[in-house]
Amino acid sequence: MPESIQTTGIAATAGSASDADLLAQTAIAVRAAASALRERFGDVVRYQTREELMRALAANDDAALDVLRPRLTLLRPGARLVEDELAGGALPPGEWWVLDPAEGNVNHLHALPEWAVTATLVRDNQPVLTAVHVPLTGETYTALAGGGAHLDGRPLHVSETTDLGLSLVATSQARPDEDEKVVRRIGSSITAMLFDALVVRTSVPATLHLLNVAAGRIDAFWQFAGARADLLPGALLVAEAGGRISDAEGRPWTPESESFLAAGPGVHAQAVTTLSR
């Protein structure tokens, strides 16, 4: 059992054969939903008001959900669906599908390539499995609690870097209209990392950064605030790829935490020190 899973609150029970089969079918579902979004991708979608922006975002969400809802309901009839990607905190007992039907939706509207479709099964507040498809690269990332993390079937491993000063790190805006205190904390954390890390990337969405942490391309990712749908898929992927998940002060992370940190074991403690300044 990986140490990171033991110490961070991410589910550690080895996936059963049925969960492995379920993950394979979930991956098919997110790829199908992503294909629907891919058909909508192309020119920049223009909007002049906040209302027009929200309608455009909702249209993308609905296009993917129209594919995801029936497929996931068929796979797990007793599981309920969480479709509000901005929601946070603990879930009621039982099984829940936590979905982000268009992760990086604003990027999609702006004809930028950084967007994906995610589906994560949560059982009694523990992530059991997740599937993330990135249509413009054709990559599918999957993780099963206790069963490892994979990219198109190939095992993923986090970075072995041990020096934050040689690390590429990343952060993401938590959400639009964020509280001023959180925004200022984000700004000060970026400044601190600019002094201590080699390169700092700042962009949305969080999930794509976390895919890169799980794949060993990025050494650490942090965020303040955030939502379940932003962080649960990547948290499970990074944990199963051998990384460490905590809050920014090194304490176990849960969806109720006010901050989030995912890193390779060699730089996790250094990142905590930098973010705690």
From TrEMBL:
Enzyme class name: hydrolase
This protein's record includes keyword Zinc: no
UniProt keyword annotation of Transmembrane helix present: no
Keywords: Hydrolase, Magnesium, Metal-binding
One GO term of the biological process aspect: inositol metabolic process
Pfam families for this protein: Inositol_P
GO MF terms, alphabetically ordered: inositol monophosphate 1-phosphatase activity; metal ion binding
EC number: 3.1.3.25
Cofactor: Mg(2+)
InterPro entries listed in its UniProt record: Inositol_monophosphatase-like
Parts forming coiled coils: none
Residues the record lists as binding Mg(2+): 100, 230
Full protein name: Myo-inositol-1(Or 4)-monophosphatase
Species name: Streptomyces echinatus
Taxonomic lineage of the native organism: Bacteria, Bacillati, Actinomycetota, Actinomycetes, Kitasatosporales
